[in-house]
## 1
Amino acid sequence: EHGTELVELDEILGYHLEQACRYRAELGMPDGQILASAARSHLNAAGHRAQLRADYRAAVSLYERAAALVPATEIDLALEAELGEALYWAGNGVESQRRAVSLAERASAAGDRVGELCGRVRESLLRTFLEPEGATEELAALIEEALPVFRAAGDDTALYIGYSALGQVGNMRGQMDAGLEAFEQAAIHARQAGMRHEELGWRSTLRFMGTTPGA
């Protein structure tokens, strides 16, 4: 009667659907893609909520379980971005960087230029934190190459990744207003891609550090 009111509903449904997928595999039954897609959707939604409450370790676990249900021939760009973000904020920047490299390689092998550039941008962005010497200029050059491709594709997830990386370039250069403008664009594309939890980001920090009036 009150099941739909449970805060943990997505975690519970995602878990049971995930187990059903595993049982089908163990029994040698045909792939249940509809079942796997539903499990992935619920685990992803649960990961969003964990990320919003800054429980990044839980978000990583949920996103990794969702990623394990993605077909080998498919790239879920939004899930890759969200898992990469959660890994970084959970304190595992090296693994986040490794996944970004893997994304670029898998997308390149599949002929997916947008996915490849997203992986390269993510990996380059992480280097501004992990190996910063010269990384900001390399990232800026890569974004200049990538954004026209993302715009031509009309891919909101890719545009979120591109503009949020551009915002970080502004931040690293001390160009707070330019960084804020880029993060505002990133928030628009996050919303359009259904990644509303990604709208929070760096905008308040750059408003505070830039020329935005206090009142």
## 2
Amino acid sequence: MINILKEVARGKRGARDLSYDESIYAAESILGLTASPVQIGAFLIAERIKLESIEELKAFVTVCRKYALREPLQQGLDCAGPYDGRKRSFVATFPTAFLLSAAGLPVTLHGAASLPPKWGVTLQDIIHESGIDITQLTRREAVAAARESGVLFAAAEQWCPPLGAIRNLREDIGMRTIFNTVEKLVDYSCSPFIVFGIYHNTVFDLLSRLIIKLGYQKALIVQGVEGSEDLYIDRPTRVYTIENGLSALDIIDPESLGLDTEVPEMDWTPLQQITTTEAVLQGGGHMAFYNQTLLNGAARLHLAGKVNSLEEGVYTCKHLLDNGDAWAVYTRWKSALLGSKAASISPA
């Protein structure tokens, strides 16, 4: 690991990108904890200064996937949002998952407890607020709930234990590292489709080339709300669509679909997130968040070829929200998880 550090930690001008094989070695040293904490911290900070290359990212994804529990559980859409959570926005991807499942598109969600640099509200926090302690559920129970509902939530640090092993170190560093990108691409269900959130438009090209190398059938990279995979509802969103090894820039404008809505200022606690989610899934709630769920559902159905246009996707999603189908999927998913928990603590 010392020789690897000599290459990436020579300063902004002297550092060089690692080869794929060198990157595999570095990833194995970190995720296998054979490197010392000091070496791991030095590597992560040096990479943060140098900026990661495609080969480095691909290698770290490959090694994370090697240590993860992965299998083609459901051939649908992977929603890859930020593990450091949200502070100022609604997590529309959560209700959208149940809407998509109601439309016949299985969805895989994943995440962990909050991480730096944002330390925001995460999917895991929201699910916990609904009464489900996802960290106490086994992988088997999560998979069983997915079979009932078409929605899988993978608790990343359980499904990929090395990510949990380096959590304390990442918390101590307190800044973004290569793992903020890599952990979103572990892809626990081996999905053919992915929607991936980014914060800066400068990484569109880098991430599109990485996703092409990872072999997805089709992908949507979204410069979304707080760096998430969620499209804005009050302004246009820049996206890259990737298909057949090619990527193309596009703009998704909610105004063109009659959905643009001013977003209210909210105190986004986990409780407020789950309350808003459940209101939307019952066909109600604030129009901004109802429409944002419609828009994200439409774009993801279109990505997966379930509808022929965004307009068709909006009509399809509105029907599923208003007639209770999306809510029914959510209640099946939640009941399955709560039932698993009750069964695990009931007397023999």
## 3
Amino acid sequence: MERRSNAINKQGTTVPLSSNVVLRITFVIFFSLLITSILITRRIDDVVEERLGRNAISIAAVIANTPVVKEAVETHTALRDIENIISTVGRTNNASLVVFDNQYNPLVQYDVAGREKFLDLAREIVNRPLPTSMEIENLQYSMQASSAIYNDNNEPIGYVVAVMPNDLVNAIIDESMLLITLAHGIGLLVGIVGAILLARNIKEILFGLEPETIASILQERSAMLD
């Protein structure tokens, strides 16, 4: 009786089995989801910038190879037509666009951000050796690309510049992070519910007894048999 009394007193100072199971499983799920979130977040930044960069390259190349644009740049006529094209493409893709002649004079432009320095940035992009750049100091733009416009004799007659604004990048990343957080929250909730059901099932199997109580009973039984 003294042993059982001591075991019961000891049981009162320990965490119940059901609570212990729920806490441990919750901790494992939370820690796993946290590590996953960190890895996914780092990857999302790279993927978004890469895809938007490719999108900027594609937009500039398609516009530069459009026959209407080529003719308008070469003759400096029908600028209204390419202005409609540029504004439509810019609104559809949330991109800033500029069409230059071969003297870097802007013929048509569409800037979603309305920046005063946009033309300076566009000229800088045209003169870069690389078609894209991920970082522009002191300018809130990223994912830029340029493409030359050639006439029938394969001579450069102008340039097209496409710029994806940082606001678009941040919006996509924020939206992705919101979905990831929501998914992980649902996963954690499902894990906690599963842990509670598992703890109840274990307790039913043990007839509602705690491990300390079972150990005490086995000790008493062993002592009685001896």
## 4
Amino acid sequence: AGLALQELGRWDEAIHRLSLAAAHDSLATHVLFYLGAAQEQAARALGDSSYFHQAAASFEQLLELDPEDAYALNYLGYMYAEDGIRLEDAVDLLHRAVALEPENGAFLDSLGWAYFRLGEAGRAWDYLEQALRHIGPDFGAGERAVILQHVGDVALALGDPGAARAHWEAALELDPDDVALRAKLQALPQADQ
């Protein structure tokens, strides 16, 4: 029921149901993962930071039970990186995820993004190049678009607006409704095309 409510964007109800499920079986790490994901998505959808902190607590509780849950390590690390907080913790969590699944393109992207947010564009580039090589057929268009956008952001930071444009245009083909990405492309000087 919690997952169905989450799909409908009924965040409070979804979180309530998933919290009940987690309380019923406090060792069910998959329930904690779903709860943390719902809380994080609610934070983004509603702009409510209290949900973000609840999500972090849910993932931390999960990782106490299973410190080698690569997907929880990645989720929490990416949350921190995306929010620009606890960036050294994010890098640590994401290194642990990548060590468990070194060819997981999503994990490599998350680690690259964390390094970028930490101000280390060169290191970010190394991981993002690896992420591009490990984009599998199971990646959806949205996931591929995010990785391409990250590569474009890092390329721009490294002084290569042409590469930034190429990656952002490829991302926009996959996600044509991304208004922020379209604005970034329009902000690039025309001479860099």
